[in-house]
Amino acid sequence: MQKTSSLTGPSAAGSSWTHGHLDYRELIGRFWSWLFLALLCVFFEVWSQITQHRSFLFNAYNLQSISLAASAPLLLALGQTLVIVTGGIDLSVGFVMGLAAVCAAQFTLLAGGSAWALCLSVPLTIAVSVIPGAINGILVSRYRVPPFIGTLGMYGIARGAGFLAAGSGMTVSVDNPGLQMLGSGWNPVIVTAVLLAIMHFVLSRTRFGQYTYAIGGNEQSTLRAGINVRRHKIVIYMLSAAFAAVGGIVYTARFSAGAATAGEPMLLNSIAAVVIGGASLFGGTGNLIGSLIGALIIAVIEFGLVFINVDAFWQFIAVGVVIIVSVLIDQYKEHFGVSS
Where are the domains of the chain? Predict the structure, then answer.
């Protein structure tokens, strides 16, 4: 029996148009942040060439400045991505980073002036910093406290603990060759890149990553599958705090001082990087390459506006607009069922 196709003539044309339209939607949903980053780079490059007769992108200083500006929020976004994929949010990471910055300075001072003092101060700082993360995880998973409320409370606790650890001053200065080496040149970017590569593999290629997506997609089904959701969430919030601790250590290394307010501006940027990168605030979607693109977009906006002599306060407006656009695109994808 010969099978005849029903998709002939006008019907086939209509099907082709529909298929092409869906492909167009998927392209927008998947790659809009990449396209937006490219457009930003082109805009600032053209502006620089016309007004200053020099390159914006092909400039070693500019590239290093943008990379360093992106590395700090990206470190926080490594853990924030995990939290948001599970359907939560961590508002405490900014001041956990500040607490870690102060602890790194204090522990380094206690260990003496040797470069090897870093080997003691780094694990101690991370150990102290994961305590708020563990409490966040217990509050959210065991006691069912909404993540927004639980981590907001820890935001205040970590903030106060950071100021107390700093003593009478706002900052704790430290002069250590090991810290100076860690914070010099491209080293903060290299540290961030290595951690990004490791966590990208963990999230995309391991069972831990599969469980993370499963919890965000449907927590009840994940529970019925026998996965220990409570333990998994505690680990994720501890990882979020640990990456914030690394951010604080790198901050102290770069500026030779630990400040309790070190991560305050990084909270918004870490969430923005994840959302701009395509993660859904409803959970279940998101990836670290997207968070990298989001962090680069924020860094290019902030550095680019300074580069063209725009008032620094416009940076907050620009980033806020991009966040709103990102959420609208996320809603668009949810409405039309477009995959990320």
Answer: 55-336
Spatial contact of 282 and 100, defined as CB atoms under 8 Å apart: no
Q: Would you list the DSSP string of 38-62? A: HHHHHHHHHHHHHHTSS-SSS-HHH
Q: Which residue's entry shows tokens 């903060």?
A: 188
Structure tokens at 326: 């990102």
Q: What is the per-residue pLDDT across 105-116, written as a single tens digit (0 to 9) for each?
A: 999 998 876 768
Q: Rounded to 5 degrees, what are φ and ψ at 311?
A: -50, 135
- Evaluate whether 105 touches 183 at the Cβ level (below 8 Å): no
* Positions of E strands within 176-330: 257-259
Exposure of 333 in the CB half-sphere (CA atoms within 13 A): 24
Q: Which residue has the tokens 């407006």?
A: 317
Dump strand ranges (E) for the chain.
171-173, 257-259
The DSSP code for 91 is T
Q: What is the fold of 55-336?
A: ABC transporter involved in vitamin B12 uptake, BtuC (1.10.3470)
SS3 breakdown of the chain: % helix, strand, coil, rounded to 5? 75, 0, 20
Q: What is the pLDDT of residues 140-183, one digit of tens each?
A: 999 999 999 999 999 999 999 999 999 866 789 998 888 889 99
> Which residues does 215 contact at the CB level (< 8 Å), separation at least 6?
86, 87, 222, 227, 229, 232, 233, 283
Residue 172 · residue 104 · CB < 8 Å: no
Q: Give pTM, 2 decimals.
A: 0.88
Q: What angle do CA 60, 66, 68 make, to 5 degrees?
A: 100
CA pair distance 131, 146, nearest whole angstrom: 19
Q: How far apart are alpha carbons 59 and 208 in whole angstroms?
A: 40
Taking the C-alpha atoms of residue 179 and residue 10, their distance in angstroms, rounded to an integer, is 69
